[in-house]
């Protein structure tokens, strides 16, 4: 294909947009004229260095008598007084010109007219890096939080209820990676069991309705199920919830089961109430941290922490343990569930195995408190 026909074919892409077509045609004419007049070579022979010179030329087209229209003149292309520029281009106009030129050169490469795009070597604006997650608990602070929960008093029934609820809540946040809205918006009846697609092993899951009313499957690890059973025993309930049981994930401390009637389930706790529980635990951990003579900066981090820090702590722990990031993404609900996920049990089971083996609460390894 001849060069002029090739450029016309590129311009045809903008036929539906008259303004863009006019701009693209003008830029193509300018660079071709400049290449022939100032560099003595066709467009196909321009180098990266040539185009750097051309960019500077756009800011001050010289010699002016050759390139710049006389003030107040509007001459047609066939008029001897016609010039390619009305004057120097602004920085914004230069960027637009180079963008269109890059589009032309890339298209010519695709059409086989050019072997490569010399502008491809130009320094490209880097995307701003994703902000690093800073709102999470480092290992020593996370240990301090678990120690503070284990150190809660358990002499009286109300104290034991406070302890059991805090331990279960923090297990949910960390092992399940749940948001606070998901803790108050889902119930114990959302736990269910199904067989591993390969081994036939029975695995527990939590069907969580999350942000944007999107559902996801959260692996209910053996450790999380042990914590669930312990919490339910503290409430004098059966170890495991019945399918579809309308009980909330978290109970008020004052709730008591009637000995002679079916449970009258409490209303789910509010977000603000759960937030208050979390802040009390973090404040307790910060006070213990200072009492032990440790740094104020870390204590301040504990006091600043929220439930969402626990979610970030869970994600950080999983990533540091080498769990496949797609498993982390699906567990934390960072993407929609596929409509075919109900059939892809093998992938789900691999995720369950990976989460279970690498992601542990390890209450028993924390010193200084009860492991009941």
From TrEMBL:
<feature type="domain" description="Tyr recombinase">
    <location>
        <begin position="132"/>
        <end position="357"/>
    </location>
</feature>
<keyword id="KW-0132">Cell division</keyword>
<keyword id="KW-0238">DNA-binding</keyword>
<feature type="transmembrane region" description="Helical">
    <location>
        <begin position="104"/>
        <end position="122"/>
    </location>
</feature>
<dbReference type="InterPro" id="IPR010998">
    <property type="entry name" value="Integrase_recombinase_N"/>
</dbReference>
<dbReference type="InterPro" id="IPR013762">
    <property type="entry name" value="Integrase-like_cat_sf"/>
</dbReference>
<keyword id="KW-0472">Membrane</keyword>
<keyword id="KW-0131">Cell cycle</keyword>
<dbReference type="InterPro" id="IPR044068">
    <property type="entry name" value="CB"/>
</dbReference>
<keyword id="KW-0963">Cytoplasm</keyword>
<dbReference type="InterPro" id="IPR011010">
    <property type="entry name" value="DNA_brk_join_enz"/>
</dbReference>
<dbReference type="InterPro" id="IPR002104">
    <property type="entry name" value="Integrase_catalytic"/>
</dbReference>
<keyword id="KW-0229">DNA integration</keyword>
<keyword id="KW-0159">Chromosome partition</keyword>
<dbReference type="InterPro" id="IPR050090">
    <property type="entry name" value="Tyrosine_recombinase_XerCD"/>
</dbReference>
<keyword id="KW-0233">DNA recombination</keyword>
<dbReference type="Pfam" id="PF00589">
    <property type="entry name" value="Phage_integrase"/>
</dbReference>
<feature type="domain" description="Core-binding (CB)">
    <location>
        <begin position="1"/>
        <end position="109"/>
    </location>
</feature>
<protein>
    <submittedName>
        <fullName>Tyrosine-type recombinase/integrase</fullName>
    </submittedName>
</protein>
<keyword id="KW-1133">Transmembrane helix</keyword>
<keyword id="KW-0812">Transmembrane</keyword>
């Amino acid at each position: 294909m001849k060069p002029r026909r090739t450029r016309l074919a590129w311009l045809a892409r903008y036929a539906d947009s008259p303004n863009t077509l006019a701009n693209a045609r003008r830029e193509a004419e300018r660079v071709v004229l400049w290449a022939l007049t100032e560099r003595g070579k066709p467009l196909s022979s321009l180098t990266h260095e040539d185009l750097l010179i051309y960019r500077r030329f756009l800011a001050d087209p010289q010699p002016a008598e050759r390139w710049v229209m006389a003030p107040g003149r509007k001459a047609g292309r066939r008029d001897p007084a016609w010039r390619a520029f009305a004057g120097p281009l602004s920085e914004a106009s230069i960027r637009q010109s180079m963008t269109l030129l890059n589009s032309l050169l890339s298209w010519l490469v695709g059409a086989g007219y050019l072997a490569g795009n010399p502008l491809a070597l130009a320094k490209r604006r880097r995307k701003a890096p994703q902000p690093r997650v800073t709102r999470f608990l480092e290992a020593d602070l996370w240990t301090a939080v678990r120690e503070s929960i284990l150190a809660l008093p358990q002499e009286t029934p109300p104290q034991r209820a406070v302890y059991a609820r805090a331990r279960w809540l923090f297990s949910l946040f960390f092992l399940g990676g749940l948001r606070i809205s998901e803790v108050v918006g889902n119930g114990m009846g959302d736990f269910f069991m199904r067989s591993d697609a390969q081994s036939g092993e029975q695995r527990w899951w939590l069907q969580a309705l999350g942000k944007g009313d999107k559902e996801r499957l959260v692996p209910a690890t053996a450790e999380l199920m042990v914590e669930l059973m312990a919490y339910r025993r503290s409430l004098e309930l059966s170890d495991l919830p019945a399918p579809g049981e309308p009980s909330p994930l978290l109970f008020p401390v004052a709730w008591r089961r009637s000995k002679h009637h079916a449970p009258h389930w409490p209303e789910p706790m509010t977000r603000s109430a759960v937030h208050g529980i979390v802040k009390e635990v973090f404040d307790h951990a910060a006070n213990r941290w200072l009492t032990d003579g440790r740094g104020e900066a870390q204590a301040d981090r504990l006091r600043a922490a929220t439930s969402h820090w626990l979610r970030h702590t869970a994600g950080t722990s999983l990533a540091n343990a080498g769990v496949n990031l797609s498993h982390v993404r699906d567990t934390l609900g960072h993407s929609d569930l596929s409509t075919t996920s109900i059939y892809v049990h093998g992938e789900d089971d691999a995720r369950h195995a990976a989460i279970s083996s690498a992601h542990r609460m390890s209450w028993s390894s924390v010193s200084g408190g009860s492991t009941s």
